[in-house]
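INFO batch 0412 | record 1 of 1 | parsing
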Amino acid sequence: MPSTLVTLALITAAISLISILYSPRAQTTDSFYKGHDATGSAPGVLTLTLSQVTTWIFARSIMNAAILGYFYGIAGALAYAAYYLSFLTGAQIIASLRFRHGFGSVQEFLADRFGLAGTTSYNFVVGVRLLSEVFANLLVIGIVFGMEGTWAYCTSIVLVGGATLGYALLGGLNASIRTDAIQMSLFIVVLAGLMLVAMASGSFDVPAMMASTPEGTSPGWVLLVVALLQVWSYPLHDPVMMDRGFIADRKKTMASFYHAAWISILCIMAFGMLGVWAGMNKLEGETFVPTLSRLIGEWPMLFFNIALIVSCMSTLDSTFSSTSKLAIVDMRLGAPTVQNGRLAMAAFLVGGLLMVFFGSKDLFGAVAVSGTASMFLAPVVFFSLWMGRTDIPVWSYLSAFFTAMAAAILYFTESSGYSNLIALWTGLEHKYSKLLVLSGLTLAIGCGAFALGIITGRARPQAPAGQI
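INFO prediction complete | emitting tokens
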């Protein structure tokens, strides 16, 4: 085994051990499901901000940002960074959902507005998203340690997944938030070291990289428009972000969202710029990882892999805590005990492992499908949350939901090569152009269904007007 791989394995083991030792054992359901400490106190702004950032800078996000920059230049990097504007829209969603309308969870709000149809459809989409998070981050771990199917690939996925589950089982959401703060601090140090190495190379030409996508029709710019359409609904279907919106008071909560926005955008742009730099200096036939390794050297590449591992573990533990809350508290599949929450976590790890070893390996595909599926929530945000409408009929909601599901499935089949219908209808061949068409249609049909429902439906008393 190469010395760098041995070093990486030892560092991963050390991070796992520190996380386990630093994780408090949950004694109450409030600690396990709501993130409170042993005294019942909520985390502070800094801790909550770092937790927000590190749980959204997924291992796959780092790879996606870098690879998009590698293939599409600065446009690709900006496109992926634009998804992190979700923290700003997420802040306004929480402000309206919790502090204006007074609901204690997304499911409580949807049950009030749309009944069983609202909660069932939402829980389905959220469950799929959480499962895809487990799958995608474990997949990146395997890629870091070896080629698909090798002993190192399979073993690293199982061991890192198991270690992360281990400390998540101890403390639930409280443990996740506490370890997120440590992991994010390490992540920032690693990222700073990686950027210093790149800038010291002499070929890290920022002005040239900023002009690396001169073509206005580049798929990177198309993807940027897609991101700007999807950020309105993306936060609401992410339980990891939403769960952190119900922990602290209003001042701390809003501050954590706003600070998480600029910090995460800077971090993602840094990785995107590394991808742009690698793309501008690649050799014929070279892929991203070999190019970056050649440019910065074998040992500095270790920093990049450490960043992937840290972000993977921080996202996984948060995903596990959200799965337990979804299954036990929100869906009520069992009594709200700590033990049942732990069983739900273990079940999602098993599901994620099955997807890794038997499912698709397209990292951005999972993001795009998830983002498209979430777009049925955009009219919910616009009409039900921000406009305060209580007279939206269930058929309008279901129209938006089934439209988004159809669009997500169609994008998956188009991007995977199983169908080519959009090209026949529009002449567009690139998958991001197809994604833009599907996103635009989904948003238009969903909002149209809500508007039509208001016009034709029987009006109910409106919620009091107020600030979003």
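INFO post-check: The longest helix spans residues 151-199.
INFO record closed
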